[in-house]
Amino acid sequence: MPFKEVNPRQNFPEMERGWVAHWKKHKTFEKSVESRPKDKEFVFYDGPPFATGLPHYGHILAGTMKDVVPRYQTMRGHRVERVFGWDCHGLPIENLIEKDLDLKTKKDIEEKFGIAKFNEACRASVLKYTNEWEDIVSRMGRWIDFKNDYKTMDPEYMESIWWVFKELWNKDMIYQGRKAMHICPRCVTPLSNFEVTLGYQDVTDQSVTCKFRLDSAPKGQGDGDYYVLAWTTTPWTLPGNMYLAIGEDISYGIYKTKEGPELLILAENLAETMFGETEYELVKSIKADDLIDITYEPLFPYFKGLKKEGKFRIKTANFVEDSDGTGVVHIAGGYGEDDMELCKKFGERDSSDVIQHVGIDGVLVPEVTDFAGEDVKPKDDGMKTDKKIVKWLEENGKVFTAATYKHSYPHCWRCDSPLL
Asked: How far is the C-alpha of 67 from the C-alpha of 140, rounded, in Å?
């Protein structure tokens, strides 16, 4: 049986457009829905994209899977109504409008431009690329209703979400909690774990090894000026210090140098690296048990009144290692998931008890009197405030060493600001 001759020089884009035109003309998608019984539904909810940018590979891949399942269920005889939607809220549109209007900070929006005007500017621009989306999604071969699309800014949609929330509340399924998350101080918003991974950059930061003066000698030791050394690459977190964490199975040493009578405590495995060219001698090897629950003098005076509540003492943590630093980790409960969980374990009733000395805008709170109002991680100079804090510590005799340190640090993928 002879086959019909096929032109080998096909125009695939034209073939795509031809099929799309054919489906539209004959209402093929609509008929596939209407020909199935209403009492045999398969419900499909599509998580909507933003219309503030053009579709990319991720949208096309996900859209293909969102098309395959409804088609399969349609072939099984189900009525699968599906409509397209648009996510109109949140940072993507706000970020674009900020750039268009040359608004640098949240304060500019609130005080210079006005929230109502800003919201209206966002609303007017949020559906910028809807036509392009419909063209590309249709050319993918995806069957979905664009005529009856929904928008998250529609009052009916928002009311439906509040209804769901109310129902969950009535069933006692809503509770208030706190968790540590990365935040962008410029956008004044948290970022998801996925967003954080988008913006890591190699940067040079200020690091410091601080001397924490113990209130009493380690177990079994005589009198003396004992200091525990702790290293950090985020000096801005030090005013919020609450505990020092040591490793349960790490061997620690008490050391003395020719610099003075101070007795310095750190992991034995790290002494050679930490002291460098400074002459030192090991006075005594001790275990973590000899240090547990000893209190120390806070580096800063701002929150020292919390000492009577059990803070500013040495505890053990399973993530402390002696591979770098000093084998001692400074714990700032308001800044870091491990830190927060440890503080809850150490006695804080919940995460609201931790010291939060920096606001979500990245600025040090008034209680931190020497640095109040300082941006802890300025975009133009990430070490600016860290250097001021280290200088204050040096002037007050609480620094063992200070140096710069190159490492990978997360930045906001939208505005390139260092995250906290």
From this structure: 10
